Structure formats: C-alpha cells, structure tokens
C-alpha cells in the first residue's frame, strides 16, 4: 500500500484544489523574444521567475521542459534548479519533463538526479520506456520509496511516434497498450490514485485503453499542437487523474503575470473540473 504522502495522493489533492490543468514552462527562444527578453541565461531566468510568480500556488502541476534549460548549459540548469525549488517551496507540484530512459544502472543515476536527493529533484519526472519498461525499475523504486511519481510515455502526441507505439506486439496489443498495462500493474496495490502515470498525446486518435491504469494521465498537445477541450473530453471520459497540459498556447499570453494567470484560468475553465 502506498503512503498518504505518495505522489498520487498529493496530486489528487492538488487536482481537487486547483482543477486539472498542467502548465508547461517551455522557454522557447521565440517566446523569450516575444516577452522582450534576451536569448541568454539572464533572459531565461527572467522568464522562469515570471512563470513562478504567475503559476505557483494556482495550478495542480507545473511541468518545466528540461531541454530549454539544458540548452544554456550549467547556468541554464542552475536556473531550472531554482525554478523547481521555488515552485515546490510554494507547495506547487513539479513534473520535470526530462524524458529519461536508459539501461538499469544508468537509470539508477537518473532516478537519483530527478527523484532522489540531487539538487534537481522534482515531485515527478517523465520517463521514456523505449529501452524496455522494466529498465525503468530503478526509477519506479526510488519514486515509491520517496513518495514521488513518474509519467511514462505511452502514446505521444507527435506523428512520428505512430510507427513504433501503434505496432502490435506478442499478445496482440499495441506497444502503447503494453506500456499502459505495465504501469497499471505497478498501481494495482494503491487504493486511490497511484503514482505511476502515463503520457498520452491529446492529439492521439487511437489511444490505448486507460481504464485499468489507476494512475495519473498527462495529455500534452493541447493548444499549439491542435487538440482542444473536445479531444481532452473524448480521451478523459470519466477517468480520474487526467491532466491536460499546455505550454505555448498559454505562455504566449505573457510576459504580464496577470495576463498569464487569466490565460491559465481561461484554458483551465474550458476543461472544467475533470474527475479525480
Ligand atoms: O511528455 C510531454 O510532456 C510531451 C509528450 C508528448 O507526447 N508530447 C508533447 O508535446 N510533450 C511535451 O509537452 C510540451 C508541449 O508544448 P506545447 O505544444 O507548446 O503545448 C513540450 O514540452 C513537449 O515536449
């Protein structure tokens, strides 16, 4: 049985409090320019500070896209560290979108970095299972031991994914379905919402069956990639723990903090309160 301070339980409480929206912090160079910021570490830091001011304490989950920080090297990662820490200090759950996945021994190092004691540690991290779901075991173990969560890529929003993720495997189900089933098995002993989530693009037309998951479902691809409330409702049905995730469509409302907050409220309201 998972403890009450497990990620799934904490996420469920945050969804009750704030509604279902996950806000992505994706500091694209084009967005820095649109916000009147320089394409350097100072611009990145100003962008991140505005996002923290706008979203801390207001949404269920914030998802910084690690790649946009990594692009500036060690100084960019230092900005990410401060951003994650500031959000968490304000009681806002943070999902580091790092999409990690490697052989077991390297996976253990990633688990330490993102879910253990390292300076980059977040409440949850995105993982890629395409070296084999079981290769993620070290991260699942650390997540459970530390009350943290993971979101495993199942059916991603990009069109190139279809050839791999919709391929049919041994048991006659798709690769994406096998990932969801493996995640569901890890959540089976959890009474409420488990801590092993999956990622399904809101743009995906052949989504895996998510009914047995008993864990959170991140739906990126809303807004800029073309999905809207209708697609989210179709995928979400009456499933608990669904989080539509929006980055550019919301961030283009910046740099004003109140404009960003209004955009988050407006986009969040379009989905209504999804079941928890
Ligand atoms: O894991 C993700 O968040 C993710 C999975 C996926 O299937 N598709 C996808 O777009 N994402 C991420 O979600 C964000 C989408 O950004 P926008 O298209 O600007 O809303 C980016 O950070 C992507 O890396």
UniProtKB/TrEMBL annotation:
Domain Orotidine 5'-phosphate decarboxylase: 20-263
The keyword Lyase is assigned to this record: yes
GO molecular function: orotidine-5'-phosphate decarboxylase activity
Pfam family, one: OMPdecase
Reactions the enzyme catalyzes: orotidine 5'-phosphate + H(+) = UMP + CO2
Active site: 99 (proton donor)
Keywords on record: Decarboxylase, Lyase, Pyrimidine biosynthesis
InterPro entries, sorted: Aldolase_TIM (IPR013785), OMPdecase_AS (IPR018089), OMPdecase_type-2 (IPR011995), OMPdeCOase_dom (IPR001754), RibuloseP-bd_barrel (IPR011060)
PROSITE patterns, alphabetized: OMPDECASE
Pathway assigned in UniProt: Pyrimidine metabolism; UMP biosynthesis via de novo pathway; UMP from orotate: step 2/2
Enzyme Commission code(s) on record: 4.1.1.23
Enzyme kind, highest EC tier: lyase
Coiled coil: none
Family named by the database record: Belongs to the OMP decarboxylase family. Type 2 subfamily.
NCBIfam families from the UniProt entry: pyrF_sub2
Protein's UniProt name: Orotidine 5'-phosphate decarboxylase
Organism phylogeny: Bacteria, Bacillati, Actinomycetota, Actinomycetes, Mycobacteriales
Name of the gene encoding the protein in the UniProt record: pyrF
């Amino acid at each position: 049985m998972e403890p009450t301070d497990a990620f799934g339980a904490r996420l469920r409480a945050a969804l009750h409090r704030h509604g279902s929206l996950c806000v992505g912090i994706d500091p694209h160079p084009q967005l820095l320019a649109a916000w009147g910021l320089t394409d350097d570490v100072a611009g990145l830091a100003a962008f991140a500070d505005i996002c923290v001011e706008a979203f801390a304490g207001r949404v269920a989950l914030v998802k910084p896209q690690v790649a946009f920080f990594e692009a500036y090297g060690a100084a960019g990662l230092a900005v990410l560290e401060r951003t994650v820490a500031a959000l968490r200090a304000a009681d806002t759950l943070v999902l580091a979108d790092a999409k990690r996945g490697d052989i077991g021994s390297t996976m253990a190092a990633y688990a330490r970095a993102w879910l253990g004691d390292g300076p980059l540690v977040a409440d949850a991290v995105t993982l890629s299972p395409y070296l084999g779901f079981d290769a993620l075991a070290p991260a699942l173990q650390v997540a459970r031991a530390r009350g943290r969560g993971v979101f495993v890529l199942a059916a991603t929003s990009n069109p190139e994914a279809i050839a791999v993720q919709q391929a049919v495997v041994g048991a006659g189900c798709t690769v994406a379905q096998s990932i969801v089933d493996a995640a569901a098995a890890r959540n089976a002993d959890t009474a409420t919402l488990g801590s092993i989530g999956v990622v399904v693009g809101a743009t995906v037309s052949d989504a895996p069956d998510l009914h047995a998951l008993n864990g959170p479902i991140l739906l990126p691809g809303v807004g800029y990639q073309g999905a809207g409330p209708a697609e989210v409702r179709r995928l979400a049905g009456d499933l608990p723990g669904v989080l539509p995730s929006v980055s550019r469509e919301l961030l283009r409302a910046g740099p004003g903090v109140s404009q960003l907050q209004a955009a988050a409220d407006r986009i969040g309201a379009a989905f209504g309160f999804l079941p928890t």
